[in-house]
Amino acid sequence: MSNLVIVESPSKASTIKGYLGSNYKVIASKGHVRDLPKSTLGVDIENNFDAHYINIRGKGDLIKEIRKEAKNANKIFLATDPDREGEAISWHLAATLGIPLEKTMRITFNEITKSAVKAAIKEPRQIDMDLVNAQQARRILDRIVGYKISPFLWKNVRSGLSAGRVQSVATRIIVEREEEIRAFVPVEYWTIDITLEADDGKCFDVRFFGDRSGRIKLSSEADANKVMKAIEGCDLSVSSVKRAKRRKSPAPPFTTSTMQQEASRKLGFQSQKIMKIAQELYEGINLGSENGGVQGLITYMRTDSLRVSADAQSAAKEFIAERFGEKYCPATPRVYKSKAGAQDAHEAIRPARIELEPLKIKKYLTNDQFKLYKLIWDRFVASQMESAVLATVTADFDAAGYIFRTSGYTVEFQGYMALYEESEDDSKARSEDEVCEHKDIRLPALREGNKVKQTAVLPAKHFSDPPPRYNDASLIKFLEDQGIGRPSTYTTIITTIITRNYVKREGKALVPTPIGELTNKLMKESFPDIVNYKFTAKMETDLDKIEDGNNTMEKVLSGFWTKFEKELNAAEEKMKDAEIEIPAEETDFICEKCGSRMVVKNGRFGKFAACPNYPQCKNTKKLEAPEVEKTEEDEEQKKTVFADFKCEKCGSDVVQRIGKYGPFFACVKYPTCNFTKQKTRDTGVPCPKCGSKIVMKNGRNRTVFYSCERYPECDFSSWDLPVNEKCPQCGEILFRKKGQSLIVCHNKECGFKKSAEDNKTE
Questions:
Q1: Is residue 415 within 8 Å of residue 385, measured between CB atoms?
Q2: Exposed site from 191, 200, 347, 659, fewest CB < 10 Å?
């Protein structure tokens, strides 16, 4: 009999299989196998919040396969991801397989390397129920909030809306920033720059600072002209030159948050893309036989810890000494202190093997994988290097009692800067002093009292900038600083609020939609605790206490429900007779027929622009898809469109291809894996034969037809467009005849028909 190892993803399974040999069977659960039901709350609030879990629909065959393998196994190792979610998946697997808690063999590894996997196999443990209960508490909290508030939003705002415990807070953050921007009043200010020429003919620039008593702000043209008049024709004298040495320490290795921020700023990647690539690097890449085959390249990528193992520090020191020299190695290994409340179960994100330099393995990686791996590798190695030494200089010049200043630095010893420099937060406004500071400043020899002459004077008018909109990087930083969410949830938060149309992307910026602003207003008025920063952060702390064994799931849920139930009842009573008008989202189009600004409407095939004076004016326009932020990728990547589901045969990514019948989906490993699936579009209309959905498909010569999603089990198909409306005479589904302005009943015996003009959607 063999031993069975159960992991989450198929790619991870293939990596681990290569390390364990023929006595081990490795199989993937493909995430959770059980969850709360979608059709009901699934939580018995009155009975200590007992959760009713069911097998996830569509995973029946997979569960049968796992049970079959488990039955024939000598030992069963549960090797899901090393976090709360992974612990909960193992717990659900144990329940599904009927393994008693005390007999479970749970193994975890921070990196998927041969040594780490084999060491974990030797030291299995029982499932940690504190971790499981922390995950259960989060899941139940989110379920209660979503299933109790969403119907309230359907009733009072619009059907289809939903609320989330943390997502609602994130929406509030973005809405409030937008309100700050709208309320912002620009303030005028002036700068005066002077180009000076030294005795040796070298020129350099200085900027107005103030007078001998301190800084002066130039708030108007009159203020600037006063200074200009006073210094006209004056030589400037050197009033002071201050030189100093400054040591600049490297940034610590990445946590999930800082990795997402830096990859967003330096690589232009969005949060979801960053985590997808990081997952691939963690689970393993085939580096060829010369590099040991399939290798996990980084440690676990969901962490807020800055801890680094002694072995990793030692390997980094050895590499740095060999590559850069001993002087680039600090006297003692660098140790970074994690933030208060950080979970120390995992290390910081680092390369699993320091010797796998990015350029050496570039040919085995996709363009995006290489970019992110290089960023992680560079950041970690730099974090273990000696500090840089900067020679700083600040020089002041006097003219008619006014002070002009220049400052900057030169690099005397590169230290870690020989490899890596952290990028600046592009959402943070720079001060005037920072704007005046120059890197690699080279001033001529200056002594106090020296005279230098003006060659050019440049006054300039400016206006202060409003606070910038949030982007992925700055929003994640704000969430982390406020204690809202955890490393594993940042990407989901951003993805969810965009999917729900509460927030949209404009370039890199996250901008609230009208429905997002309205929903946020209603949430703040009716459920102030749910969208309160401190309350949400406290809930995260309570979940951490469950994980640490310092609180119980029942106490946390009970404390939340007691207050939330009162808010829910009060909100329903308050909004019983209220009527809420959803603000229209305006476009840049002006109606050619009546001159009104057109607004966004939702139709059967997505959004379109319509005149707000409908039905008096029925003008409509097609809306172009919003521009997607472009990143520098190779041509092959640009042509690839990934599906939002995995291959049903091997679990790999699925991409869109074009065939003789139009677009279809295929496994990225095709033809090695021959999985394909026709691309369809849901019409939202039930099949008249079996009640499943009717979907749109491409036929021969890319003609469009409609069939049941269960085809060929259900053989319904039609060339005519299904209409989401029932026949007033017999109740059957209506169809619009292809190429005609006629709507007819599916039941030919009924004979009902009408003009399609009567069915135009506003």
A1: yes
A2: 200
pTM of the model: 0.74
CA-to-CA distance for 4 and 18, rounded, in angstroms?
14
What is residue 58's DSSP assignment? T
Residue 498: its H or E element: helix 490-499
645: its two tokens: 């589901």
Residue 77 is classified by DSSP as E
SS3 at position 512: strand
Q: How far is CA 349 from CA 103, 303, 465, 674, in A?
A: 32, 7, 36, 35
Contact 87, 128 (CB under 8 A): yes
pLDDT at position 726: 79
Residue 31: its H or E element: none
Average pLDDT, stretch 515-539? 91
DSSP 8-state code for residue 759 = G
Question: Per residue in 218-261, pLDDT tens?
Answer: 999 999 999 999 999 888 999 999 999 999 999 999 999 999 99
Give the SS3 label for residue 685: strand
Residues in the chain: 762
Residue 207: DSSP 8-state = E
> What 3-state DSSP class applies to 737?
coil
User: Which is it for the CA torsion 259, 265, 267, 270, positive or negative?
Assistant: positive
Closest alpha carbon to 253 in 348, 182, 373 = 348
Are 65 and 104 in contact by the 8 Å Cβ rule? The answer is no
Q: Kindly state the helix (H) or strand (E) to which residue 372 belongs, with its residue range.
A: helix 367-383
Which residue reads 């999985």 in tokens?
A: 675
Strand intervals (E) in 414-534 = 437-439, 451-463, 503-506, 509-512
Residue 760 pLDDT greater than 60, yes or no:
no
Q: How far is CA 425 from CA 132, 337, 416, 477, 539, in A?
A: 36, 21, 20, 10, 28
Beta partners for residue 294, in sequence order: 286
Per DSSP, 201 falls in state: S
300 classed as catalytic: yes
Number of other CB atoms surrounding residue 733 within 10 Å: 19
- Kindly give the pairing relationship between strand 3-7 and strand 76-78: parallel
Structure tokens at 62: 């997979």
- Alpha carbon of residue 610 to chain centroid: 32
Return the structure tokens found at 169. 């807070």
- Cβ proximity of 259 and 312 under 8 Å: no
Output the DSSP codes for 211-280: ETTEE----SHHHHHHHHHHHTTPPEEEEEEEEEEEEEPPPPPB-HHHHHHHHHHHH---HHHHHHHHHH
Distances (CA, A) of 480 to 260, 372, 376, 438, 667: 12, 21, 20, 31, 37
In DSSP terms, 697 is beta-bridged to 705
